[in-house]
Specification:
This protein is mainly alpha-helical. Helices cover about 60% and strands about 5% of the residues. It is built from 16 helices and five strands. Strands 1-2-3-5-4 form a five-stranded mixed beta sheet. A hairpin with a 5-residue loop joins strand 4 and strand 5. The N and C termini lie far apart (about 55 Å).
Length: about 375
Amino acid sequence: MLLAAGCSGLVGANTQPEAEPVAAPPSISQEVIGQTPWPVKTRYVVDLWLHGYAMLAADTTRTPLFRRDYRDAMIVAKNSRNILTRLDENADALRHGLRVNPRLLDGMRLVLREGSWEEMGNDIAAFLTAGEDAATGKKRPSVLTTWKRAPHEAEATTDMMSALGSVYRTDADREWLKMFALSLTDEHSKFYELYWREQQHALRPVLAAVDTEFSQRYLKQLRSYLRGAQLPTGEIVLSLPLGGEGRSILEGQHSIAIGFPASADSSLDAVYEFAHEAVGGVAEQAVRERIAPAEFRAGAAALYESPAKVRGGAMLLQRATPDLVAGYERHYLSVAHVQLSGGDVDSLFVRAFPLRQAIIDGMDQRLDEVLKAAN
């Protein structure tokens, strides 16, 4: 049984009522830069949610989802401040849940649907108590704190509850979600909010540099592809925990979360990772169509989709802005920890991210179709 007291911890910037601000500070929700169809943003709830997964998930893939040094950096930061949270205390149990049911990792993308941690906490609490409401026929007391100023519209909450239900299907899954969300609430109040604010202040010049490179320079060269792929508008979220893989929602709303470049000098990394994510639909379609049905049923598609996105991003840039291809290939070789050692970059790139020719041909064909549809 989910206690109302437990759910009430899912929201709020501070668990002490007397310390609650009059209104949620806008900087803890998101910052938007640029007035383009694809503005560049930062959003606290995205980073907090992904931070939780980054502290738990084992990531040994060639193109890592999270920065390879992220967990160690966070441990050092927390130890230096003598901070221990429920996320640390519950880490072993949460990791066990991920090992038992790796599908729980699919919950990472859901955060792109939310505008703030308060909204997400509200929606998670509504999802976790929905079954009890139906069983008793009684409306449970509100689980929101007074810090929550702008709850979702009922339709948005219903949509999010459906999305949560598609990932957290069983009682065990929902118990894992409850533990994870409450652990993150403690992490948020004791450590991550202040850490995140400090990082956003330090990285403001990088945010501006990304806007210059993407919004003011390269977006116009990608617009034909984006129109043809039915991605005319959307948002780019720069996220502190993410590595080269990124997370995206490309149906309905269009949200692409990518790694936050480390410096203004590396702001082009955001353009590379945007191309990698934007081609995701093309890559996934080519994999589905070009592997045997038996392989698909056996789950082999997941093995091909990651290298297909990496190779597909290069193929997209070759068509849209060829001057970026060499930099893109170097970036993903660096992400994969492949030493250049004076070798031919194209050859190293192909060897590092091998892919069946049939899938490459499928992406070629689909990219041509998308660009033709835009004209």
